[in-house]
Amino acid sequence: xxxxxxxxxxxxxxxxxxxxxxxxxxxxxxxxxxxxxxxxxxxxxxxxxxxxxxxxxxxxxxxxxxxxxxxxxxxxxxxxxxxxxxxxxxxxxxxxxxxxxxxxxxxxxxxxxxxxxxxxxxxxxxxxxxxxxxxxxxxxxxxxxxxxxxxxxxxxxxxxxxxxxxxxxxxxxxxxxxxxxxxxxxxxxxxxxxxxxxxxxxxxxxxxxxxxxxxxxxxxxxxxxxxxxxxxxxxxxxxxxxxxxxxxxxxxxxxxxxxxxxxxxxxxxxxxxxxxxxxxxxxxxxxxxxxxxxxxxxxxxxxxxxxxxxxxxxxxxxxxxxxxxxxxxxxxxxxxxxxxxxxxxxxxxxxxxxxxxxxxxxxxxxxxxxxxxxxxxxxxxxxxxxxxxxxxxxxxxxxx
Length: 400
Ligand code: AMP
Fold this sequence. Notes:
Layout: E1 9-13, H1 30-45, E2 48-52, H2 70-73, H3 79-86, E3 90-93, H4 99-107, E4 113-116, H5 123-127, H6 130-137, E5 142-145, E6 170-172, H7 174-187, E7 194-198, H8 207-216, E8 219-222, H9 227-233, H10 248-260, E9 264-266, E10 270-274, E11 283-287, E12 296-300, H11 302-313, E13 317-321, H12 334-348, E14 352-355, H13 358-366, E15 375-376, H14 380-387, H15 393-399
Bound molecules: adenosine monophosphate (AMP).
The site of adenosine monophosphate has 17 residues, from strand 12 and helix 13.
């Protein structure tokens, strides 16, 4: 961040959409901690920070009488925690915009923080409304976007607001900058070989990513539930495994595209099969193309792990999105854990590794390997779209 915030009021779009328990206590503050470096820089420069964020989906989950459930969705739930983490005075404004927000922003002393009420209390937020964005912009001298997780949404506080600040008065925060820089290490001139490991439930969620990867990766490893659609498409017997019958043709097209582009596409030779979708089910190792009737593949097997590990070990750039099996159940977590460890080992040997997408991030965190891979993305959907090659509106808005 090259901006100097001395005597400046910065309005900062953060992602404080943290999980809360029934008593509205934060159960995981990762997202808040991720924004701290940016906020600290603003304060250290001698500026003040006005923070805005969404929290949950208040307009989708209204009370029976049609009103917003303020008690549940107020961003005030984070105020004390932010104050404790920063050791700074933090004020909360029960409005997002309006006369009280204007007054509190104007009165905010340098070195202090103001948190505005949940941006999604306003329907204008989701619509990217220019009037609402202008009111937010009027609260501050400069705009900082540090919410990578919402960068794929053209909302008022993430995108539209940028147009009300000159180029020299807006910037990405550290978190956002990091996400973009690390994703670009995979997308732009990666050190080769580049291996992408794609897992998770459905092929249909990852079509664009797979298509894009087949254009520039050297190896594409497919695991998880989506592998069975590829196996069935090639004539395999997959029993009751997860399958998308309307994507069989697509799977064959992707296999053909890989061949044509000389990309090595690896599918799991064997699977840990189970006779029920349960951790207590009977389990057996089976060839993925020969899973018996009534059984289903819930994890990659030992041969698949060995195949995948060999390729990962030789890689110089690694992208991982999606688990290799139903890792939430301990009997089907070995594949995902082994791949996480392989990514860590390859990283220790000098590779660059990026883990992006909710469930693979959860697996790496569960194994406490966050520091053993090069970068763990905080932006599930946004990272997926960035890697698919899509333009993210919040990023584009900053360059205009
Ligand atoms: P995604 O959100 O697409 O990354 O998918 C993650 C989900 O896929 C996790 O909840 C996994 O339990 C699930 N999953 C992974 N492998 C399998 C499988 N072989 N069969 C069924 N579900 C799976």
